[in-house]
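tool_log.txt
---
The assistant was asked to compare two proteins side by side. It first ran the structure predictor on the initial sequence, then on the second. Raw inputs and outputs are pasted verbatim so the downstream comparison step can read them without reformatting.
(1)
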Amino acid sequence: MPIVFTTEHIPMYWLRDYNASKLRNDVVAGLIVLVLAIPQSVAYAHLAGLPPVCGLHGCILPPILYALTGTSMELSVGPVAILSILVGNAIREAKIESTASDPSAPLRYATTIGFYSGLFGLIITALGFGRLSSFINKTVISGFTAGAALTIMASQLATAFNVSPASGATTALTYLTTLGEALKTQTPSWITILGSILSTLFLLGIRWQKKIDIPAWFPSHLCLVSIAMATTYGFDLQGPTYQVMILGDMPSGMPQAELPEFGQIGTVWSSALLVTIVGFMEAYSSGVRIALKRGYTLQPNRELGGISFMNFVSSFFSTMPTTGSFSRTALNYDVGVSTQVSALVQASGMIFTVLVLNRYSVFYYLPKFVLAGIIIAAVSKLLDYHECTRFWHLDKTDFFVWCVAFVATVVLGVDIGLGVAIGVSLLSISYRTTLTRHGWQLINPTLLLFKFHGPIFFTNLNTFASSFASALHESQYLSFLDSPGGTRIGLHKCILDMSAVTDVDSQAAEALALCIVEPIKRTDCRIALYIADMQTETITRLIAAEFEQTCEQHGVAVSFFSTVADAIAASNLKITHYPIQ
């Protein structure tokens, strides 16, 4: 099939009808999202075990690159919680630590993950496999993200208690176990516990309250950060009396150009592949819902290419892996963004932050328990139990898939949990292909019409064979009963109505002939096979599999017709029953 290019294939195609009104919307949206991105990005860098400034750097180059290559108008890219926990787990599992002689070792490892993640994504894009994302259904993504959210919440409890647990935890259970061990030897701080709870409740309260009409642009995170820093400074919470951990100085300046560690592929490839899959799924699911609301569609393969290119290039500039953010994309849409110019505004604001605000240590007194509250409040959106109950009422199979994905992610970790979730998704698809329907009708004592609903794959080929054999057996019996004068004429022709067969894979195509001729041979009747309303691609596949030759070798003549009506007309028989529907 030839590739058809549209205007959407042109980088920044949305500039063709740009105007002052859209510019005003984009500037306002970019500044509002910037206010949210600053504390969130710092918190997500903390979650990944990286210097806080790395989160700010993740909101400079990636938004610019995505604006050049992406197709979503509203997607806001930067550090996100799930990728941060994946990168942080990879760093901890590899036992990469910052030392006096090599303080940037964790960041280099993270950028190496970003490099190979981008490279893998670009290869997948070049092969056109971005569309395979449709095999990972919403149920699996929902269960996985809920499990990841619970894991992320568990990882922040140590910060909330102001204790330092042993390193190495990567699952929700191990985070809780190491926290329990730490509490046996360390004294938690009631101030940080109370501060974390109040921070989380403040953000959740702003989101959930219904009595006051708070506009979407209200800077709740900025208010929280300002109050927390003023309180910490005013009451000297970081001093020896309370010993609250604070953010401290963040270095000013742009991210530095530095090559990733290319030789680490043997260590990082699995983490990089996970970042590729999770990053794309979060970005695509964030953007596609809003795109549908605004009347346009996203191209999965193009989106995968845009996200992968963004991480590939950013990895050469000391930038942690990034993707589209659920919360910041939703805010972007709520405040009326028009195009990705808002991303350029956000990146410009972040440049001002790292060059000017960091120079004057504006965030020096920000307590780390506030970062924990920000993270917990942000990921609480992903822990949506309503989805679970909805699947229970709609489809028990989907409910089971959701539970498996959730439990696997919580118990085995985010990385292994994703693999289990994808495997369950593919198994559920395979299982559903076996749940097909079929019907048959004896149109005339000598003419059988058989219809199969659904694709014919190797997974449900036995279902097709048994249902066809059963239809032949029962119709043969009825044919003898309906034969005039008890002559026992039997079946002479069989029409296969293939209008509801959406696809036939190669393995099924090779075995389909035998699945048809063997039951026919058992009838002891010479039956001609009429195949009607089959898709052209499927006919081509059957021809390549020598379907006709195999049937004729077993004494079954095959003819193809455009419609069932044409096949019935070719039979030259009087219709005595209505065809199946």
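(2)
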Amino acid sequence: MSGETILIIDDSREIVKHLAEYVLPLYGYKTAFAYDGRTGLAYIRDQKPDLVLLDFNLPEMNGLDVLQQLAQESLNTPVVLMTAYGSELSAIESFRLGAKDYIIKPFTVDEMVSTIDRALVELRLLHDKAQLAEQLRRTKVELARQNSEMNTLSNIGKAVTSLLSVDKVLSRVQEAAVTLTNAEESTIWLHEEDGTALRAYSVGDAETGDELWPLDSPVGDVLHNGRALRQAQFSGPGVLLRHGEYARAILFVPLKLRGISIGVLGVSLRKDARNFSERDEFLLSILADYAAIALENARVFQAADQSLAFHVEELQTLFDITRTITSAVNLPEVVQLTIQQVHNSWNIEALSLWWLDEVSHSLKVLANVGTPAELLSQIEIPAGHGFVGEVADSGKPIYTNDVNTHPLHYRDVDDRTGFKTQSLLCVPLKYRGRVMGAMQMVNKQNGNFDDADVERAESIASAVAIAVNNALLFDATRAGGKERGAEAAARRLTFSAEKEKMEAELLLQKMRSAIKKMAVTGQLNAEQIAAARNLVQHSKQLYDLFLKQKDDPA
């Protein structure tokens, strides 16, 4: 290491000039000089040089006198004694007085440089130790700061990922982003469903909340390339965000989930003239990872919550329909109540119940809503023909959202009624494994028919088949007027009630299976699973209450 200050004390001006002006500066040393011992001592006291080159033969005070004075004053500046050939005894005495080394005149440049290096070893080691200690101190401070930041991030991450509301996640993440980067405002941009723009959600001084941003903007670039953007411009209006909107400094990082950008998390400064640092970018990127996971969890939970709420509502609807239609035993009344209840619970244009005549092996409409009753009642469809006939013949449900191109489309019905069928769902009416007819729903108004509609329709159709069968048995018993027939009817009614209970249990089991599947695939976390199971338990309690009221109306 060079850069140390070396004091030369020698009465030979030639030696002083040679060392101070030519030799030592060449090796990076700073120099000072004195021509006598007293002047040299005064300099040592005031300036404390790193090394002294001390001549033995000096006027007034020789080299040994200077060393003795340094020892008395406890001045620990290292000293190299310069002595003439034959004065080795003086050199030995100088070591006793604290000299680090000696060099015999005349000396070469290499000899002088080597001697200086040996004399400065201890000083350099002490200097390096001090530097290492200071570096260690700074490292500890930095590690403590980073540890504090990471603990803060971890706590924020745990808090954010435990939230089950998308709005709460957005708000909490943006507050954390402002705190971590000391920003003035924070914004999260998420893709619109149609993928043509980004919707902004902001906190702080931003006025961009709940606005649409174009994809051809810095935010869109970050979303597209998946890389962070950090810019600052303190002259002029600043960094352009979008048309007419600027900031002095911005930091945008992508929100990535499984390697795919789903949005952008940004912070900005509109007043403060400073730039965001690499450390800010690092912290915001970690926060963005937490945010992406939290948003996905919240969305999955809300979707699952809505799905479970729909199933609970569906179960309640099934209870209402079952309770209503099974409370009647007159066939026309059962049919009419069925039409009303089912049509009211579905957003469909038309609904019809078809009954299978086992003698003619054809189906006739029992009741309908949405199509001309007088015309539809005149139509008889052979089993195996059209949607109704095929369902009655096969005992399997059918649905299509493009009736006109379906090979089973029975055009004669539309031609005679003037009704235009676009989408259709038809399920069998089964009792004890025997197909008794079919229930047909036409033209769903809020989307397409799907497998979920099939499951729901089959559950309702089971209740309808039981109710119609009960009504038929009641009519048969009343017509026969025999007690034995009444007892048989009562047994069948009991069986029907048991079947109704089994259908409800089946629906509850489907809900439990759906929850288990979503838990296994990681779509629901522990809290979401618990909430979903609570919904199912509530549904079970609701049904048990219904059964209790049915068994004991009082």
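---
observation on (2): Residues 173 and 291 are 6 Å apart (CA to CA). The chain has a mean pLDDT of 81.
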